[in-house]
Each structure stands twice: as structure tokens, then as C-alpha cells.
Design goal:
268 residues, outer membrane lipoprotein receptor (LolB), chain A
């Protein structure tokens, strides 16, 4: 059985540079302006989400889990995210903690599995590995939580995606050689500033993974647009995972102790 778990405090990618517009891009709309719009979908200080996630393997076998995702921004502007599985009982307490670091350094990632009984650091060599058994990698999850940014970003010509006008941004993963992706292409919905499709390239002409957010599932929570259905599709393995957000609370009080390595070992 594959352990499943995911969720995101915000699907938007934090894309902020002052590079010039690509040919055919909407006149007057810079990457900085698009970035400001996507950032407006993030919580001001914190959020708590409850999510269900279903993973499907090559043979069509399914596994599901329920999790809580705690996200908080510190007074220094750095963010952190704790994800804890609450169901099924066999994997309850499986947790992952991601801590953003200053000056664009790679986030710290820690993981706890009850069957192992100890907290372990996820090293640079393992960030491309499966995030708690799902089709999201650790690298994908830190991106979805707004804890990592791409470098060398550039704006590409605007497009339409399923009839929706989108901005198109390409960039190099901030993890550089530690990343399993050569570059990333993001499609940002003009109306909601939600990234509704992200393509991860292994080579210039080979897509390794696709993340899609269902535009029909986007809901407004206190002025922030959040998709409630997100799919991660692994093109190489032929598998996928789908995350469904069941509830969202914005800017609530979360004890700081939740975001510690010691707190990872709490099973409830």
C-alpha cells in the first residue's frame, strides 16, 4: 500500500523578477506584477488545511489518506509548513516539516515515519524522491507551499489553456544540480492568478511531470483564490495523485512549537 499525503497552502508559484516581456506577452504586465498577483493568494500569516489525497498506480490500484497542513510565516518573512497524516490509522503521524531559509538557500526538510521511530533530514540527494509515497516529490511540495523559487525566470508569450487566458513563465529550479528538473514552465490564470498547470522538464523536449489545478475547483477564501483539486501526473512512471482540499482556515493562531523536529513525533 502506498502512503499518500499532500496538500498545499497555495498552488501559486512565487515568480518575481524584472525580466523583459516575451514576444506576444500582454503589454504592460511585468513578471513582478504577475508575481504580486500570485502572492496575494497566499495567507497573510498562517493557514490550516485538511486534505484528502488519492494515488493511483500503473495497475489502477488506489490508496488514500487524510492529512492536515499547517503553514505559517514568521516575523522575519520566512515561511514553514508542517504536513501530518491523520488517517488511515496504520500511517497516522507520518509527518514532514519544511523550513524556508534566508538568502535564497535551499529549505530544510525533515521527515518522520512512525515505523522508523525517528526524525530524519531529507538530504539534497533525496529531494526528488517521493513525498510520503505520492507522485509529489519533496521538491514539488516545497514549491507548492511557496518555500522555493526558480531562478533565471523569463516571461514567454501568453497562451490560452482550455479556453482560459494564461501568463507563461519559464525558470530554472533553485536547487540547481540537486533538482531532477532541467527547467519548469508555469501557466498562470489571468483571472485568478492561480497556476493552473506546471510542466517539469527532464530535457528540453521531455516532460517528466505535470501538476494541474482544476480551474472549476478554485474557491475564494477571504480574498485568496485556492484550487481545491490538484493532480500530480508522473509521465515517466504512468502514475498520478490527486489532492482534494476539504477545508481551509486562514490566518489562524498556530503554536510555534508545531514547526519543530520534536513536534514531528506527535502521532495525533
Amino acid at each position: 500500500m502506498r502512503l499518500t499525503n499532500s496538500g498545499l497552502a497555495a498552488i501559486c508559484l512565487l515568480l518575481s523578477t524584472g525580466l523583459p516581456l516575451g514576444a506576444g506577452a500582454e503589454e504592460g504586465k511585468t513578471i513582478e506584477e504577475i508575481s504580486a498577483c500570485t502572492k496575494a493568494n497566499l495567507p497573510k500569516s498562517s493557514s490550516v488545511q485538511e486534505v484528502d489525497l488519492e494515488s493511483v498506480d500503473r495497475l489502477g490500484s488506489k490508496s488514500t489518506s487524510h492529512s492536515k497542513i499547517y503553514w505559517q510565516k514568521s516575523s522575519d518573512g520566512l515561511s514553514k509548513a508542517l504536513t501530518r497524516v491523520t488517517d488511515p490509522p496504520s500511517v497516522r503521524g507520518s509527518s514532514t516539516l519544511i523550513l524556508q531559509r534566508p538568502n535564497g538557500e535551499n529549505p530544510d526538510i525533515f521527515s518522520f515515519l512512525p515505523e522508523i521511530g525517528r526524525v530524519r533530514r531529507v538530504t539534497q540527494n533525496h529531494v526528488s524522491g517521493s513525498f510520503l509515497g505520492t507522485d509529489f516529490s519533496f521538491e514539488d511540495f516545497e514549491r507548492l507551499q511557496g518555500l522555493a523559487e526558480d531562478s533565471n525566470r523569463k516571461r514567454m508569450p501568453d497562451q490560452e489553456l482550455d479556453g482560459r487566458p494564461v501568463y507563461v513563465i519559464e525558470g530554472t529550479p533553485s536547487r540547481g544540480e540537486d533538482s531532477s528538473y532541467e527547467f519548469v514552465r508555469s501557466y498562470i490564470d489571468r483571472d485568478t492568478c492561480v497556476t493552473i498547470r506546471t510542466e517539469f522538464f527532464e530535457k528540453p523536449d521531455k516532460i517528466l511531470k505535470i501538476l494541474t489545478a482544476d480551474p472549476a475547483s478554485i474557491q475564494n477564501h477571504e480574498g485568496r483564490n485556492i484550487p481545491h483539486v490538484v493532480r500530480a501526473e508522473d509521465k515517466k512512471e504512468g502514475t498520478y495523485s490527486e489532492m482534494r482540499v476539504e477545508s481551509v482556515e486562514m490566518d489562524v493562531k498556530i503554536p510555534r512549537k508545531y514547526f519543530s523536529q520534536r513536534a514531528l513525533e506527535v502521532r495525533n
